[in-house]
Please model this.
Amino acid sequence: MKIMLQLSMVAFGFGMLSCSKAEITTNKDEVISYKSRISPIIAEKCLDCHSMESSFPMAKYEQLVQEGINGKLTAIINTENHHIPFPMALEKTEKEAINLWVNQNYPE
Ligand code: HEC
Model:
């Protein structure tokens, strides 16, 4: 019985550890900067179609902020029914990062 208790304590401990690890990427207090966090996501997942030459360029900080201000950026990333093809679809943590960045008023 004592062993079981100790085992479950250990399991609980691991649970806590993995939990705090996962939170590093979604920590609400973390400042999400465009440069370190957002721009690599956009470059990888969006710029194939949203380059400077496209009708809706998002290659520059100001352009992406504009999409954020007009509400289209979050509207698109937070819907299942978006236009972004599967290989470029955003991971959950990437969506969270973009949403936080918008809520934090676009740290550069
Ligand atoms: C395969 C090409 C393609 C990819 C990849 C793509 N987009 Fe788009 N996106 C478009 C096209 C085409 C439009 C304009 C037509 C439309 O709204 O469906 C558009 C429109 C938008 C708009 C609205 C622009 C406006 O002002 O009306 C936003 C915001 C947007 N995309 C965000 C993104 C984000 C964020 C990503 C990356 C996660 C992304 N898109 C990836 C093709 C793409």
Summary: Residues 25 and 93 are 7 Å apart (CA to CA). The radius of gyration is 19 Å. Confidence is low (pLDDT under 50) at residues 13-24.
